[in-house]
Design a protein that fits this description.
Elements lengths: L4 E3 L2 H7 L8 E4 L2 E4 L1 E10 L5 H9 L8 E2 L5 E5 L7 H11 L5 E7 L5 E3 L3 E6 L5 H11 L2 E6 L7 E6 L4 H12 L4 E6 L2 E6 L24 H5 L9 E6 L15 E2 L16 H10 L16 E6 L2 E5 L2 E8 L1 H13 L4 E4 L1 E2 L4 H12 L3 E5 L18 E6 L17 E4 L3 E4 L12 E5 L2 H18 L5 H11 L19 H6 L17 H9 L18 H9 L6
Parallel strand pairs: 14-16, 14-19, 15-16, 19-21, 21-22, 22-23
Antiparallel strand pairs: 1-4, 2-3, 4-6, 4-7, 5-6, 7-8, 8-13, 9-11, 9-12, 10-11, 13-18, 13-20, 17-18, 24-25
Helix pairs in contact: 7-10, 8-9, 10-11, 13-14
Length: 561
């Protein structure tokens, strides 16, 4: 049934949210983000099972067969009775139900026109100078309940609290009141949102990995880059997504972590959790193993940070996923604690103060973030790509032009291949297509991990580089597109792996003897050690002296360091 999305009138907002004085909105670092209401559905939390809740709903005229279970445990939505399907009717119907169920919320509509559901759990950030006892006194006075976490997600003075509130509108009032208190940096519900997986699979096969290398040279110059660096297994990239297949035969991966409460290890939880496996292949598909594809950083490691579960609507995959800020905050904190250097976020999300803080915190701890700008083709980029603490990546077509679907505008940092992409898929009958691979993928979802992989190569070449230094290398070595220098259509240009590595690699990478020249002495070292595990002659640190090392000598022949 086509949903009717309606914005609440100011009069209704005043009636149901008088304490905030802000109309129907939620607070994001002092900015009021407006909310609409889906008049056709309500959300119910039933932690002990749905039977008792559905008896109460049936008594009030709800058809319980319309239940759609969320991937977030204990949550479901139901159709509002037909006679109550106005904004006022649905909102006050939900308020009436609060006496009969553990928690009820209208299904709000966020600024992306995606559903958003308030939960009784709050994430509250206090000024670092505020003593713990004062922070806890504010919580006790304004949002009494159980403090679940202190310094949540590695963020100083951030509390996660489970309140005794029973209605989503009450949660909005409390968070507005908290956010206005001196000493409070932010306060928000750990709301349930729909993250957007930025992909548009299509049928035409396009088996060549044009983004790595193609005849017109509109690519990342991967073979040239691999002569210098294939990636180091000590450099780990966290794929923040709906999970990726663990142990895929063509992925250089290690076990990940689940933050969505669904599958241990970060693997897929349902038939629609396909996106992360395709994203991961762009970074670390295995090279030279006789099967499938290669990622741009084939020697680096990917691991899953599962931050949501895909929406499966009666077996149909809708391209969205259920998530909460606490899941993404925890995954970003884990990226720091587990030793990762890079994260990739190929999704759109609802503005969240705790998530914004977590991206900044991880960056401050040495983790560089890459985020897809979105697939709407508009001149503004989505959140979290819009954050200043991340690298916002747009999509390029094989022609060297911006892919028409790729969002661009202020905040775009760089562009990478994102149209007609071939990558890893869940094996067998699972995934987007039968078999172990998927082709014809369109989306900034795939541009972002390609850029993340180039960063992983750069870090492999020089692990001492800071986040700022890696970003500047990527920007200064990108191939310029559009107007000269930075522009909001391409950012700093088309990312180039070879150029980036030249900025950190020795001036003459074929120097096997270390004498500052590339000549017959270096050739002799390579040929003498041919087929061995090195280290003499293994110029690219691949573990074997082979044609790549010979090519490095010949490419740099007669040059001086």
């Amino acid at each position: 049934m086509r949903q009717s999305i309606v914005m609440l009138s100011l009069s209704l907002a005043g009636a149901v949210s008088t304490a905030s004085g802000q109309g129907l909105s939620y607070n994001y670092f002092g900015e009021q983000i407006p909310l609409g209401v889906d008049a056709t559905r309500i959300a119910i939390f039933a932690p002990d099972g749905v039977d008792a809740a559905e008896r109460a709903l049936s008594r009030r005229g709800v058809d319980v067969s319309t239940r759609v279970a969320s991937a977030i445990e204990g949550w479901s939505t139901y159709e509002v009775p037909a006679e109550r399907r106005t904004v006022e009717g649905a909102t006050f119907f939900a308020m009436d139900l609060a006496a009969d169920v553990s928690f009820v919320s209208p299904v709000f509509i966020d600024q992306r026109t995606m559903p958003l559901i308030m939960t009784p759990d709050l994430i509250i950030g206090f000024d670092e100078t505020l003593p713990d006892e004062k922070a806890e006194a504010i919580i006790e006075a304004m949002a009494p309940g159980q403090i679940l976490d202190v310094d949540f997600g590695g963020l100083d003075n951030v509390y996660r609290v489970r309140t005794s509130l029973t209605h989503g509108l009450d949660v909005l009032e409390v968070t507005h009141a908290l956010a206005s208190r001196p000493g409070v940096k932010f306060a928000e519900s750990d709301f349930i949102v729909k993250g957007e997986s930025f992909f548009v699979p299509n049928d035409p096969l396009f088996m060549d990995l044009w983004g790595l290398d193609q005849a017109n040279d509109q690519d990342m110059d991967a073979p040239e880059a691999w002569d210098l660096e294939m990636g180091d297994s000590s450099v780990q990239v966290v794929i923040l997504d709906v999970g990726m297949q663990q142990g895929h035969p063509d992925l250089n991966d290690i076990p990940g972590m689940d933050f969505s409460g669904s599958v241990a290890g970060g693997g897929p939880a349902n038939e629609c959790d396909n996106h992360g496996t395709a994203v991961a292949g762009c970074v670390a598909g295995v090279i030279n193993n006789g099967i499938g594809i290669s990622g741009i950083a084939p020697g680096c490691i990917v691991k899953s940070g599962k931050i949501g579960t895909s929406t499966s609507f009666f077996g149909a995959c809708l391209g969205t996923f259920d998530s909460q800020p606490s899941m993404l905050v925890s995954a970003l904190n884990w990226s720091v604690s587990s030793g990762a250097r890079v994260t990739n976020s190929s999704f759109g999300y609802t503005n969240s103060a705790s998530v914004t803080s977590a991206y900044a915190n991880a960056r401050n701890n040495g983790v560089i973030h890459f985020v897809a700008t979105g697939n709407g083709g508009t001149s503004s980029i989505s959140y979290p790509a819009s954050l200043p603490t991340v690298v916002a990546v747009g999509a390029m077509a094989a022609s060297g032009n911006r892919a028409t679907f790729s969002q661009y505008g202020v905040g775009l940092d760089i562009s990478a291949p994102g149209q007609l992409i071939t990558s890893t898929d869940r094996t067998g009958s699972n995934g987007y297509q039968a078999g172990d691979y998927v082709d014809g993928l369109d989306g900034t979802s795939f541009a972002s991990p390609y850029a993340a992989g180039v960063a992983a190569l750069v870090i492999s070449a020089d692990p001492s580089l800071t986040v700022d230094e890696v970003e500047q290398i990527l920007y200064s070595t990108a191939v310029d597109r559009g107007v000269s220098g930075y522009d909001t259509t391409f950012g700093w240009g088309f990312i180039n792996a070879y150029n980036a590595l030249l900025a950190v690699a020795p001036a003459c990478p074929g120097d096997a003897t270390g004498d500052g020249m590339v000549n017959f002495d270096d050739l002799n070292v390579v040929l003498t050690n041919w087929g061995t595990a090195g280290p003499d002659g293994d110029l690219d640190d691949s573990g074997t002296v082979d044609f790549d090392d010979l090519n490095a000598v010949l490419t740099a022949w007669d040059s001086a360091c």
